[in-house]
Amino acid sequence: MGISVKELKELDESSYQIIDIRDQIEITHGSIAGAVAIKPEEIENSEKIDVSKKLIICCSRGKFSNEVAEDLRQRGLNAESLEGGYIAWIMDIMSEPQELNKAKDVEQSLRKKFKKTIWSRFTKAINTYELVKPEDVIAVCISGGKDSMLMAKCFQELKLHNKFDFEVKFLVMDPRYSAENRKVIEENAKNLNVPITVFETDIFDSVYHVEKSPCYLCARMRRGYLYHFAQELGCNKIALGHHYDDVIETILMGMLYGAQIQTMMPKLHSTNFEGMELIRPLYLVREDDIKAWRDYNELHFIQCACKFTDTCSTCNNEENRSKRVEIKELIKTLKQGNPYVEGNIFKSVENVNLDTVVAYKQNGEKHYFLEGYDKE
User: Fold this and answer.
1) Continuous segment of H or E residues that includes residue 149
2) pTM surpassing 0.70?
């Protein structure tokens, strides 16, 4: 039993409540206005839920939500699944006439409203870490999400103010997206006046039947394809949309799950593609500010949806929940007692005191403090 987006729009808004059961990371990329984000097992007893209303259950593509809605109906609640899920809701928005000056309005918001929180931090990272140099040809890699699309718009703005010559090419790799996901990416690029170049691969098909760490393999293959295609286009750098929050989460993940202290670097030389570099221009930009920019401009994006997330097999599945979600929740909890915790995590890898480190690695070689201890 499901309800289409069209049917939902015909209902009185006061008669229903939309319940978003997707993973927290998916929700950060975009959600339906007014929807309540909650785990399925918490719906029945949550104070956020008005059980007197029709409950519209939303997941990524309307598959896992069917099961949840059916379970709620068996418990006596009036619940229906949103057919097609969040992607259907976005597709409905994409079918509506778009504003003629959408791109100009978005660009103006970067110069005005988000100058301090986004534009200034973007340019600070560019200058601090020397990410863009004369004669660079940069492949700005667009996945379709909020981060990479913001990065594309920032690079367009940078080109207007550049003090030296460099080129930018906007690159989209299609690892075998569904038709809906591909359309969302192309429509957003069109509406935001980002001239993308799309190249196709079969990465999703290649890793779909891999049982051990398919996501890790997928990420490695994507990076390799991006380097290769960017190099074919004459680029010497690829730009990825990782932001400040990704950096501090990576630091904690390395400590808690990898037993090591490491960070996501602002730039890296490629070890497999000679002359190529990876840069992260959003390194100092906060994710909350990116979401604020997205919502202010009424933009709608998707998380990179592969065959695993498309089937909703990981939606709020406790066993498969992302470690990054756990880290996000940990940082949120720590911040309640210490508002400076995020900045302290970020600065910790800038203030490493080797005199107080038992061992460390450099160029792949491990060193112990005992090596020079008796020479002091």
Assistant:
1) helix 146-161
2) yes
